UniProtKB/TrEMBL annotation, chains A, B:
PANTHER family per record: HISTIDINOL-PHOSPHATE AMINOTRANSFERASE, HISTIDINOL-PHOSPHATE AMINOTRANSFERASE 2
Signal sequence, start to end: none
Pathway: Amino-acid biosynthesis
Lineage: Bacteria, Pseudomonadati, Pseudomonadota, Alphaproteobacteria, Hyphomicrobiales
Annotated family: Belongs to the class-II pyridoxal-phosphate-dependent aminotransferase family. Histidinol-phosphate aminotransferase subfamily.
Name of the molecule in the record: PLP-dependent enzyme, histidinol-phosphate/aromatic aminotransferase or cobyric acid decarboxylase
Keywords: Aminotransferase, Pyridoxal phosphate, Transferase
CDD domains per the UniProt record, alphabetical: AAT_like
Organism: Mesorhizobium australicum (strain HAMBI 3006 / LMG 24608 / WSM2073)
Cofactor(s) the record lists: pyridoxal 5'-phosphate
Location of the Aminotransferase class I/classII large domain: 39-358
Gene3D superfamilies (UniProt xref): Aspartate Aminotransferase, domain 1, Type I PLP-dependent aspartate aminotransferase-like (Major domain)
Length: 370, 370
């Protein structure tokens, strides 16, 4: 073997992995496009027409670097949440912010608590800093607040992850339950409260933002309700010192100029957001109807997807997934125990849900071996 | 002091800094816009019209996530450099890739060698992983290949940084000198060869790409000659195992969908690139003329900027810089010893260089106390 530069011991121990295989990769492998792209919880309704027009108009300005301070977007987000600019940090999607949080709060060997089957990219970034993942099973299709808390205390974890509303189950806790969880956490434990789907569920699931508390980081994104998954932009809201600490390591030129401009415009068009939220709610009902018409059980959802209990084990649900993929319907499914009997279907456009309705019976029949 | 989550010891020891203050921040502070934006080595000529048209046409598609594999862009870059797709990794600008390289090859306490006054963002990312920076002074306005090599050997450094052509001096080494440097490096030392300006200088400065060598990572960007600084996209070319190791920690969804599409289109329009390279060369001559007309000494440049020796000490050059800023001309200057007697002026549009020509005499007179 030739002599070569050694990876740092921490990195050498890691596998080379991709947390998610994108639909593009699947299409390349299949050699043909999906007819319905309803697997990645994107918003098929797209961004606001105002956002599209603004992006088109600034395409020619992209020779300029982005503002490394993300200033205009921070101002807009701060106004939106009634906090100060100093309470906002912008990153390359929530994924980018999770990578920073992992580095900030986790030293090699530290325990980090999350739910078994929750966001894989969080786990990927924890592994990347040598953190030790401690997972807590879901209970009744929800992340277990009591279970997470017990694990945090038992493991003296410096960091815990909670998504609310939840992915991949679509479930949620009401704000008072989340607040109870936050207040019970050790003050030395940082909570990442991932609210990527926050705009899509009941407002009652979102605790008021309290930027005096130094152990909660709320994360929001333009990828879901705002219909801008491709721009890679999210932000976190937290106490000023926490936000300032991101300056120690963040990639200051990580968020594109286009993304910053699009984000400002997206926040400004709340009327459009409301129409999307209504369309998503209607789409959830449609997916639930399709599931029930096929004898399956849709779970209640506060997100832009519906998770469907296929009524048998994980192997069966996997066959249903594969049947849909082979019928050119891109969906995903949870893979963890207790969740893996489900498939997950994103709200798409009406014609995409028509295709799902057409193809589900065949996929189910094939899974049953009929 | 309230109890709060502790930062990891590595991060707690770091300052909260911004490697570069952007022109937007300066404009906010000044309360007015610059008349000439010729300080950040952006390409005022902008991207290819084909790229602009393509970006405009896909604005409405940004509801879809980016391809986490950056596949199409990797294919295009691989074809451009006559290497395999497995020899390319795409990141959020060279900055994003530097952050990953720091994490990959540097453990806390490891020595990392660079030139004194070279790219600050590299230093920022090395500090972020607890690396120990060892700096080598420039010699005759060039990075010292002998000095860098001696420091690498002396310090047993796992990582060394070289930019060629160089920023902030605009100088360069011919390919045969770079190859000699590479061949003299210990095989256990990884070289980051930052070729951000590679398209703008003489082709003779670029060694042939050798993807069999496991200790060189070549970095390229769309920010300079391609006129796309705002999209945040760069790529690295290296041996397949090195590229594969990036998968251990990179933010797979870090590069926007728009950036991937723009990058493919930019690579496809090499005819436009040639026109930019010619315009940049003309602009360099213009800046050099202006400098000489004012009794200053322009340095030879293989980049899209000209570094100008102001003929006195660093304090004097700083006054010249401040005089230009106060006259609404955004430029920058090196701050390190041996380099700080210079200012750095990016090639801008003709009207911007006119403004520079108009304002330089006044700035010089003010610096001289006239």
């Amino acid at each position: 073997m030739p002599v070569r530069p050694a990876l740092s011991p921490l990195i050498a121990a890691l596998p080379s992995t991709v947390p998610f295989v994108g639909p593009e990769a699947q299409q390349r492998e299949r050699g043909r496009a999906f007819r319905a792209r309803i697997g990645a919880n994107e918003s098929s309704f797209g961004p606001s027409p105002r956002v599209i027009a603004r992006m088109e108009s600034v395409a020619r300005d992209q020779w300029m670097y982005c503002d490394p301070d993300n200033y205009d977007l921070k101002v807009a987000a701060a106004a939106h949440h009634h906090v100060a600019v100093e309470n906002i940090v912008v990153g390359e999607g929530i994924d980018g912010l999770l990578s920073l949080v992992a580095r900030m709060y986790v030293a090699p060997g530290d325990a980090v608590v999350t739910s078994l089957g929750a966001y894989p990219t969080f786990n990927f970034h924890i592994a990347g800093v040598g953190g030790r993942l401690v997972t807590v099973p879901y209970e009744n299709d929800r992340e277990s607040l009591d279970g997470l808390l017990a694990a945090v205390v038992r493991e003296k974890a410096p960091l815990v992850y909670l998504s609310n509303p939840d992915n991949p189950m679509g479930s949620w806790w009401e704000a008072d339950e989340v607040i109870r969880f936050i207040e019970a956490l050790p003050e030395t434990t940082m909570l990442v409260l991932d609210e990527a789907y926050g705009e899509l569920g009941p407002a009652s699931a979102l605790p008021p933002i309290d930027i005096s508390r130094p152990n909660v980081i709320r994360m929001r994104t333009f990828s879901k309700a705002y219909g801008l998954a491709g721009i890679r932009c999210g932000y976190a809201v937290a106490e000023t010192q926490v936000i300032s600490d991101f300056e120690k390591i963040r990639n200051h030129y990580g968020v594109s100029r286009m993304a910053q401009i699009a984000g400002v415009e997206a926040l400004a068009d709340q009327a459009y957001l409301e129409t999307v939220v209504a369309q998503v709610a209607a789409g959830r009902r449609r997916i639930a109807d399709i599931a029930e018409q096929n004898g399956l059980k849709p779970l209640a959802s506060a997100t832009n997807f519906v998770t469907i209990d296929c009524g048998h084990d994980g192997a069966f649900a996997l066959k249903v997934l594969q049947g849909l993929l082979s019928r050119d319907v891109f969906i995903r499914k949870p893979m963890a125990p207790r969740l893996d009997h489900c498939i997950r279907v994103s709200v798409g456009l009406a014609h995409e849900l028509d295709i799902f309705a057409e193809e589900l019976p065949g996929a189910l029949a094939a899974a049953r071996g009929n």
